[in-house]
Amino acid sequence: MAYSKNYKLINNSSRTVLVKGADQYGGQILSVKVPNITEQTYELGLVDYTDPEVNLTALVTSSNGNGEGGSLTLTFRARDFDGTFYSGWQFSAASGAFRLDGGRTEENGAYFYNIGEELTIDMAQFSAENTGLEINAIVTAIYPDRNYGYFNNHQILYDRFDKKVFFRVTNLDGTTEDIDFSGTPYIPSSLPDDTFFVEFERVSSNELLFTYNNAPLTVRFVGEARELITISSTEIFQNSIRVITATDIEYGVDYQFDITFTDVLGADIQDAVNVNIADPGGTGDDWAPVYNVWTGTPYFIDEAYHIVIYTASELLALGLIANSTISRIGLPLHLEPGQGGNVTNEDVESGFVVAASVHNFGGTTINNAYVQSEYIVENDDFDPQFLDINVSQRQGVVETINGQRWVFFQVENYIWNGTSNIQVIYWMDGSNPLNGGFNGGYINTAVTEPEEVLGTTKQNSWTGTEGIPGEKAAIAFTTLIV
Q1: pTM (2 decimals)?
Q2: CATH tag, 197-275
Q3: What are φ and ψ of residue 196, in 5° steps?
Q4: 174: Cβ–Cβ under 8 A, 6 or more apart, which residues?
Q5: For 236-254, how does the pLDDT look when each residue is reduced to its tens digit (9 = 90+)?
C-alpha cells in the first residue's frame, strides 16, 4: 500500500550535510554547515512510497559561481502523521561530484572544494512554490583532504572492537586505504586471543567478579549448578561479570557457576567456574546492629586512634553469649556520598588497613582526659599494650549484613565473660581520605554521656572529638564457632 506525503516544516536550527564523492568526475567527502535556517515550510511535491525511507534529489550549486551540476540526496525518514506531513526527516547524504569551473586545479580528473566555500541547495526543483527558498551551506571540513574518482570508491566502516568509524577508500589503481576522520591512516588494534577465564574475586559476602581476558559485551545467563545459592542480578564491570547473590556466599563451600555471555569479539562463550572461598581466619557468627548512615564531616579520621565503649547489655542484645570469642570487628564503611572519603571494594583490596583490639572496660563513658591519663605513655605515644599499630594492621573483608555494608578486620581473640563492658580501640590508614577521613555510620543509645573519642593523635595532643551523648560508632562483631 502506498502513502502520500507532501509537506515538511523545517525547524529553526543548523543542519550538517555529509557530501560523498562517487562518480566519474571525482569528488570529496565534505562536512557543510547550514547556518541560520529560518522556520520555513518547503513543498516537496507528491511522493508515493512503500519503503519508510524516501530519497529525493536536489540540485546543488555554489553561491559564488564556482560549482555547477552537483546533486544532493536528501533522505527523508517518513512516518504516517495525519496523512499530510513528513514526520522526522534529516539530511543523510549527498552524492555526485561538484565540478568546479573557473580555473580550478584538476587532479586525476577530479575537482575539489575548499573549506569556507558556499553551497546553495535550490529547493525550487521540487515545486515552483519553493522559488526563492534556498538552503545555503558553508564547507566546514574535508574528510580526508583529497579527491576520489569512481562510483562506490569509498565506504564508511565501524570497527566494533576499537569502537571507531573510519573510511575505506578505493584508489584509481584499485588499491584501498583505511583512513580516519583526521585524514591519517587508520590502523586497527590487533585482535586479542580467543576469550578465556582469568580469575574470580570475592568482593563481599554476596558479590563475585568473574574476569576474562576479553571484555563481555552481553551477559546471557549466570546460575549456580547445584542450586546452593540464588543469583539476584548480573552486570558487566570492565572485563568482568559482576554477580550479586540473594544469600551469602559461604566459606569452604564448593559452588559451580554456569556463565553464558557474548564477548567483545562477538563470540558466544559458555563457561563453568568452580568457586570455593577459603576461610580468611577469624570468621564465624557475625553480630551487627543496624546503623545510621553519616554523611557529614568524616566520621573516621585517617591515621588516628578511635575508642568506643560497648556495654554488656548491648552485646547480649546483639546475640553474643558468655565465653564468646570475639575474633573480628566490623566497621560501617558505607558507600553513600559524604564529606569524607568512601572506602571502596578496590580500596579494601589494595591497601586500606585497620589495626584494632578489644579489652575489658569498667565504666560506661570516656573522654579526652581519660585517654590522656590512661593510654598515653611517657614518650607521648599511645600505649602499645592497648594497641600496637605496627604489628596489628590487617586488610579487611567486605560483608553484607541486614542489607548493610560492613568491612571486617581480624583482631587478637578476646574472650568475653558475658558481664563486662568492653572498649574497642581502632586505627586506620587509607590512600583516599577526603577532608582527612572516611564516611561511617553510627547507632543511637540511651546513655547521656560520651561513649567514644574519635580521631585522637599525637599531633592534636591526644585531644580528639568526644562523642555526642546518645550516639556512637556502629561496631559489628564476629565470634568464633565452638
Answers
A1: 0.56
A2: 2.60.40.1220
A3: -145, 155
A4: none
A5: 988 899 999 998 899 899 9
